[in-house]
Every structure is written in C-alpha cells, then in structure tokens.
Amino acid sequence: MAGVIVWIETSEGKIRKVTREAAGAGAKIAAALNAPLCAVLFNGKDLLPELGNLGFSKIYTADGPAFEKYSGEVYAEALAAAGELSGAEVFLTGATALGRDLSASLAARLDAALAIDVTEIIYDAKPLKVVRPVYSGKLLAEVELTSEKKVISLRPNVFPITEKPAASPELVPLSAGTAAIRAEVRKAIKAAEGVMDVAEATIIVSGGRGTGGPAGFKVIEDLAKTLGGAVGASRVAVDEGWIEYSHQVGQTGKVVSPVLYIACGISGSTQHFAGMGTSKFIIAVNTDPDAPIMGKADFAIVGDLFKVVPVLKEELLKVVK
Amino acid sequence: MNVAVILQQVPDTEAVVKPNPAGAGAIIEDGVKFILNPYDEFAVEEALKITEKDGGEVVGVCIGPDRAETAIRMAMAMGMERAILISEPAAVEADIVTQGGILAAALKTLSPRLVLCGREMIDNQNDAAAAVVASRLGIPHVLAASKIEVSGDKAVVVRDIEGGSLEIETSLPAAISCQKGLNEPRYPTLIAIKRAKNKEIKKMTLAELGIAAAAPKSRVTALRLPNARAAGVKITGTPEEVTGKCLAWLSGTAKVI
Known about the structure:
The structure holds two protein chains of two kinds. Chain A is an alpha/beta fold. Chain A is built from eight helices and 18 strands. Chain A starts with a strand and ends with a helix. By secondary structure, chain B is an alpha/beta fold. Chain B has seven helices and 13 strands. The longest helix of chain B is centred in the N-terminal third of the chain and has 17 residues, at 38-54. The interface between A and B is large, with 92 and 87 residues.
C-alpha cells in the first residue's frame, strides 16, 4: 500500500501556512496514487479538528517531552516509523528552515529521492516529477523522482490551500522518540518583537541602496507595518550594515514568493531577482526609470522613495481602516 | 584533529546560465566563469580559524569535473592543505543523496573531527549535503550556522530559522553547514596563491572509495528558463498622483487591497 505523509509543522502552536499548502499538494499526489493522505503530528492534540479539514484520513501522533523541541534525529525517526506503518511512498514538508533539515535527514535515512524547495508537481507523471528552481532561480529543473521513496519540500506561498469537508481522521500513536539526540536545541532565540520573517510573508516591502542608511529603512518599515508585511533588503543594504542579514532577499539571502513585493530604491540585479522573481506582483519605486527592476515590475513608479512611500503609506492607512 | 570542508565549484553569481540542448541537466559552459561556491568560503574560513586555535589541518573533499580544481586551489590559497577530488561523471551527475554517500566515503579517509560545508550550493541549490553526509557517517549535523564555538568534543552552534534562531549543542564529530554572517572570509595573498599551486589534490575513483554503481534516486530530465516577466506599467508624477494610481492598481489589478 502506498501513501503520502505530511509533516505538520507548527509555529507558536499554530499550523504553518506552508503545511496547509503541503496538505493540498499531498491530497493531489495521494489521489493520483489512489492512496491515503496521512500526517505526522508532534505534541499537537488541539490541532486535530483543523487537520480534519485538510483532507487527512490518518494522523500519526507522537507526544511527550522528546518531541517538544525540534530534533532532526528524533523527528526523522518518527516520520520513518510512520512511513513503515503506512507504506508511504511520498513525504512532504514545507521548505522552511526546519522542513529542509527534516527532509534531508529523512531522505538520507530512507535512502530516498530528495527534492528541495519544489515549486511545481507534475501529479500524473509516473514516476512522479517535480520542478524546482536551480542556479538561483535563473533556471528551472524538471526532476524525475525514480526511487520508490520520495521526500519533497515545498516552497512557501506557491501551492494553493484547499479546504476539504470536515472529517475525523483516524489517530495512530507512534512508538518513537528513542533516537539518541546528539545535536540538541538548547535555546530558541526570537527576533525582536513584531519583526516578521520574509520567508512566508505574503507582502514584502524591501529597501536597497536608495534608502541611503538605517534611517531610510524607517520609511520601508512603516509601509510594511501598514500592509501587515515583512521588511526585505537587498545585499547592498545588508553589506552596508543598514539592516540585519536575516532580511536579505536574493541569491545569497532568502528566496521569497510573496503575493506582493514592493522594491524601494533597489536596482534589481540578477542576484536580487533570483530571490524574488517568482513574486506574484512586483511594485518598484526608483528614481532611475532605466533601472533593471523597472522593466520587470508590474507597476513601476519613477520617483523618490522618500517622497512616494510615506504618501503611499498614509493613503493605505485610510483604506486599511 | 583535522577539519574537513566540502567544496563545490559553481558558475559565478553574475553568470548568465542557459540550458544546454546537448544534455538534460547541463548548462552551456562557454563564457561562464566558475568560482568556489560563495558559501564554501565561510566554511573554509571557519575551518582555518578552528585549526589555527586547536591545531590540525584543513582538508577538502570535492565532487566535480576536472575544472573544479580551480575552486579547490582557491580554498588552498585561503589555507586548506590538501584535498580529494572525485571527478568521475557517475559521481558528478549523481543525485544529491547519492553524492552525500560519496562525499561521506571520501571524508572517512580523512577522519575529521568536524565536517563543514557552505549553507547551500548555489548551482543545484542543494542545502542538504551536511545532513546527508552526517547520516552516512553516523554523526549529528546542524544546518545554516551563523555561529560555531568548538570546545573539546562539543560545539555550540547558532542556526537561523524563520523569525529567530536556535542555539544547538552538538557532540563532535559533526557536520555543520555555514551561513553568511558566520565570519569574514580572508583574501588570499599572492604568496598563498602561488603556494596553493603545489598543494596535493588527490583524485579518487568511486571504486577506490568502495562505492558500487547504483541506480539514481532522481534525475534532471530537463532544464528550462523561467517565464520572463513582462514589463508592466511605468508611471511618473507627484507623490499624490502616483499614489492614487498605485492604489487603484492594487485594488483593481492585483486585488491585494
């Protein structure tokens, strides 16, 4: 019997958006295989009703202190155990920091095919095929997953969430958690209060050389806050020390796929574009009408970001209210 | 004890890469400059810092065609002492899980106390190498380290995650991938570049590493260019004018507000 297993990743006790996206993709793979869609859930009993709406027919649960903190060793052991019980062929995670860690650990453990940061699945292909960006998004690779077992991490904000009729999935407790933890999480350090990460944000407002310094980023932050979005940055802004590296979008930063990307004072090098080229909509604000980004943005505003962005923020505040 | 670094040669970040119709998964290499994977520089620098403090050598392992030698020489100019290159096509073209097994077999011959690599290989966007290698060697791993403190047979590592970071204590040996921000990679001096030319690069075959040919777990069947983004509207005007138009576009076309 085949099957699909999705790792239910949570953040502050809530199911991550990308996990719900993975449930939707998993349901389609399961349908093509004519096999059940299953989940593995750690310490999350109160999330069960929500999982019932995501199309899972079976949920493997593991509870207790061993699963409280992320451990690639313990989590991969549990997913492998669930895989053995269900005979699952396909394992899905979000391509988050920990999802990437877990998928790599699991693929090595199962000697499986591993596809990282997938943006498209060709559901009816046999064997299963996926598409993933390579060369920093300059090219797309179509990859055939020939091994019987396949581990796939999905890029956030790409796959649609599909709500299913409420159902009561079967619960199966896993006997796992015996793996020795040699790399142990000691402490989780949170970024400053109210700082949203760019990786899963649906709206990102980004600043580049044109912001001129840390003070210039205040304008960017204000607009991001108004839109409920995250603050991004180009490499120049990070290298100049105007903003932390965790905000960098691009080839040597984070790769993002928001619904809306607002690039302020960013020329749009190929390296930057590699990190945000798959955004659904791009707005660019730049004094240079010929900057590369102005030819690729859906909506390009020729103007000074310090004049345009504050007005835009004020007007948006009225709309949002 | 030695610190080993996994090296990868990749096209320069400025390079224009195009699919090569001659082979699935291949790019047109004419006119493309190849460099040491930028993240690998952080790994080499960290390895040098650790061995400068605790003794031992920095050694390297690389899967790549013969041209990958220039990337290894770059690491050697930074201070790496010797390296193993596996250039058989069966290894170069293998999937990333299979390559992890090959790298692990080569690393075993070096018995390092620590294995480092870059956070991601920017060509195939493989960020799993440290995890796969660790699994094959039976050692723990940590990915995307922005801080590594080695003391005795343990290391405390800080790794980035969404919205913060994790402090992880790992036993050694371990495999750790290195993120930007970990250190400032040194620039090799001219003398070091010269000296690097005489350092040993040992070519090893899969047979020598005791690895039998196996069916690939996955294979690239095609490379294609992403759909080019068409230019949209471009407007000028006073801040109030452009804002008005932008809001209309946001609600009308993009439907974001």
